Amino acid sequence: MKLVCKELSEDCWELILNRLAIDDFNSLQSPSLVCKQFLSITDRLRQKLDASNRSFYSNNCEGLFRALQRFKNLREIELCDPIFGDKADVNYPIRRIASSGLDLQFLSLRRLQKPPFPKTFKKLGSTMNNLKILRCCYLKVFRNHHLVAIADALPWLEELDIQLSGFRSYYQRGFDSKSAKYIVTDVGIEVISRKLRRLRKIDITGQFGCSDRSLIALSSNCELLNEIRCSYCHVSEHGICFVLRHSQNLISLEAGRYYSLPDDSFTFENSMNFAQSLRDLRIDAFKDHDRLLGSISTAGIPLEKILIYDDSGLSFHGLSNFLCACPSLKHLQLVSIKFLNDNSVRELCRYLPNLVSIKLDFCSNITAATFFILAKKCPLLSEIELQEIKLPVGDDFDMELERNYRIISLELSHIGHLNDEFLRKIGFVCPNLQSLNVTGLNRLTKEGIGDILKCCSQIKHLIVDKTRELGIFLEQFKTRHIEIEHHFIRSV
Predict the structure, then answer these.
(1) Which residues touch 41 (CB under 8 Å, ≥6 apart)?
(2) In this predicted model, what pLDDT tens digit does every residue of 77-123 receive, in sequence order?
(3) Residue 163 burial (CB < 10 Å; 0-12/13-18/19+)?
(4) Are 96 and 125 in contact (CB under 8 A)?
(5) Is 32 exposed, middle or buried (0-12, 13-18, 19+ CB in 10 A)?
(6) CA distance 285 to 37
(7) Cα–Cα distances in Å, from 270 out to 77, 280, 308?
(8) What does pTM read for this prediction?
(9) Which of 18, 213, 240, 476 is deepest in the core (most CB within 10 A)?
(10) Phi and psi dihedrals of 161, rounded to 5?
């Protein structure tokens, strides 16, 4: 009897091709060359292009240009730092993108040696009328006139990211009139705040030439703003509180460390009540945490995410009162809180009924027992990060282990005294684990890692220290299609 071979339907081929890593440029490039049907399918699937560094070089842009011609449904393009230094003409590929006929919504320009010319932004704006998100991150010598050129060319922008590279050292040194010529300052921010009226999100992290003037301008002119990031800018409590008072749509604020002004009329106590839309807050309230947290509690803001860095000016009483008054909290990050221990974490868990993720980094007085406490006491918890915990599980640790089927992501990096037996307990407690980071745990063996991979059959992402022996051992799990990242062990 003659067998009849039926072709797969287009829906089946789409499912197959969709399994490829569509965020990898090469993953769909090859199938698109097979036939017109595959080209049609990959064109529908391919909406993001992360161009390689080589795409910048003027004599080697053909790979990028072929992709622009082949994938007509691209909505996002990311261009990274050219490896050719001063020879790279970043304007050339950007102008070709502008002339491609694509309907881009997102463009990312990262770590460029030189910013594009103002006329290049003008060309981009003349063809990309739906470009809503622009990221110009870590660009060297990015100045006010570049910023104004963006605002003139793309007045409909909704998200703008101009965070600066190397901002920590600049922030500490400060700047003078000479350095002001090579950075973004309050003057530039004031201009774009008047031109970008639809702006919803802005990131000026590390733009040390920006101060309260920038915050006041943005808050006064951009009524739709719901996210501001301004860490390592020269801002004060006055500027932050002006934003809290006047940005009624503000959802997320990241301001880093601020300074206080004497006899200032704008304080957290009399301003926080205006910020009822706020859900995400990351402020380094150095020596002032209890006052900040108290103002949030008094205002009754239903925060969902907060970062508390350093325990200066923070007491256990202030922290517990805040968590008690904020049961809406879903994401909690505590960094370098030295007074925390296993018992205090157990006490705080009473106030965390809706917690989804928690990070406890450099809290040196908690032990590995905290992991089991969190897994048992927080029923909705799905992500846990414990980093740089230096103490082993206490001798008096006695807790019946219970399974937690919600935990899918776990990072346990650089924790001393943790061994294979601890890893096996994790495998028992977290049977649905999907992502695991165990870098810096020098007592682990390949047997311990193998045990948890066998116990947790859903692990798809594993980060481990790089050793030749471990690399050979993990080959047996390659049929599981686990994404394995290796961190190289530093020699002492």
Answers:
(1) 10, 13, 14, 17, 31
(2) 988 876 655 567 789 889 989 998 889 999 999 988 889 999 999 99
(3) buried
(4) no
(5) buried
(6) 58
(7) 44, 19, 21
(8) 0.84
(9) 240
(10) -120, 115
Nearest CA to 478 among 465, 462, 467? 462
| Closest C-alpha among 376, 242, 357 to residue 306 | 357
The C-alpha angle 301, 307, 310, rounded to 5 degrees, equals 125
Paired tokens of 315: 């007491």
CA distances from 302 to 247, 269, 360, 407, 425 (A): 17, 16, 22, 24, 35
Computed over its alpha carbons, how large is the radius of gyration of the chain?
Answer: 26
Closest alpha carbon to 102 in 135, 130, 123, 74: 74
- First vs last Cα of the chain: how many Å apart? 71
